[in-house]
Amino acid sequence: SSPHLVQVRERIRINGQPISKELFSKYFWLVYNRLEETKDPVHASMPAYFRFLTIMAFHVFLQEKVDLAVVEVGIGGAYDCTNIIRAPVVCGVSSLGIDHTSILGDTMEKIAWQKGGIFKPGVPAFTVTQPERPLEVLRDRAQERECLLYLCPELDAFEGGRRVLELGLAGTHQRSNAALALQLARTWLQRRSCRGLGELKEVPPGTELAGRPVPLAPAFQPTDAMIQGLRETEWLGRTQVLPRGPVTWYLDGAHTTSSVQACVRWFRQAALNQDKPHDGSEVRVLLFNATGDRDMAALLKLLV
């Protein structure tokens, strides 16, 4: 996954832990030297930073014999260097936002087209609730690539009137991410012949679906491991609260209009829930930073 928060090793994790400095160093030089030996003498250049780390991550996963690799695209999907995997087990597209417009295009539809580039023939794909037009673009991309695309039900559907699923990550936007994660995990488990997690129905092409361009995937009862996983997930630097004496720091990585709106909702809620010091003195700090061609004024306006 990218980017990293403190050190580059966070981008390549095994069982949730960044690989050790020793392993990182070993595989870095192994990949670097192999590329150095075999590069074209005319156009002699190394892959760019993200591409190099992607090649290295694949090499680490193969050498360390992982059972399952979860790979997040860098930017977009269609032309992203992670997109060389020909037959993934399953693909997921989370909530779309306007970002990297100089590369991906300046509308949600253009961005949806890029994201749909990860779909593969015969490989199931899932997405969450999206605006109507971008969702139609994803549907068309899925048909064009002969891939079955499903919409994730809301997280409430997985609770089935039982206890509420607790999430380790704050913010309402994480509920759709959690629903997507459950569907991806379920698909992997079914591939491993685990039963009783709700079967996907193939919808024949051209079927009119009750006002929805994409069929709804069935909800199922999450396993104990899934419930624990959702509850214990942590992602440092995302909706993180750090109380330090009289100062409370609120950290997040939001950098698009929709994610900053989600950040504002979270900040309001988190700030309300904090216990106030008895003498009324409290400093809350929300640090904002943005790079590249992003519209700083629009993002700051939402924070104001």
UniProtKB/TrEMBL annotation:
<dbReference type="InterPro" id="IPR036615">
    <property type="entry name" value="Mur_ligase_C_dom_sf"/>
</dbReference>
<keyword id="KW-0460">Magnesium</keyword>
<keyword id="KW-0479">Metal-binding</keyword>
<comment type="pathway">
    <text>Cofactor biosynthesis; tetrahydrofolylpolyglutamate biosynthesis.</text>
</comment>
<dbReference type="InterPro" id="IPR036565">
    <property type="entry name" value="Mur-like_cat_sf"/>
</dbReference>
<dbReference type="GO" id="GO:0004326">
    <property type="term" value="F:tetrahydrofolylpolyglutamate synthase activity"/>
</dbReference>
<comment type="similarity">
    <text>Belongs to the folylpolyglutamate synthase family.</text>
</comment>
<keyword id="KW-0547">Nucleotide-binding</keyword>
<keyword id="KW-0436">Ligase</keyword>
<dbReference type="GO" id="GO:0005524">
    <property type="term" value="F:ATP binding"/>
</dbReference>
<dbReference type="GO" id="GO:0005829">
    <property type="term" value="C:cytosol"/>
</dbReference>
<protein>
    <recommendedName>
        <fullName>tetrahydrofolate synthase</fullName>
        <ecNumber>6.3.2.17</ecNumber>
    </recommendedName>
</protein>
<dbReference type="GO" id="GO:0046872">
    <property type="term" value="F:metal ion binding"/>
</dbReference>
<keyword id="KW-0554">One-carbon metabolism</keyword>
<dbReference type="InterPro" id="IPR001645">
    <property type="entry name" value="Folylpolyglutamate_synth"/>
</dbReference>
<dbReference type="GO" id="GO:0005739">
    <property type="term" value="C:mitochondrion"/>
</dbReference>
<keyword id="KW-0067">ATP-binding</keyword>
<dbReference type="GO" id="GO:0006730">
    <property type="term" value="P:one-carbon metabolic process"/>
</dbReference>
<dbReference type="InterPro" id="IPR018109">
    <property type="entry name" value="Folylpolyglutamate_synth_CS"/>
</dbReference>
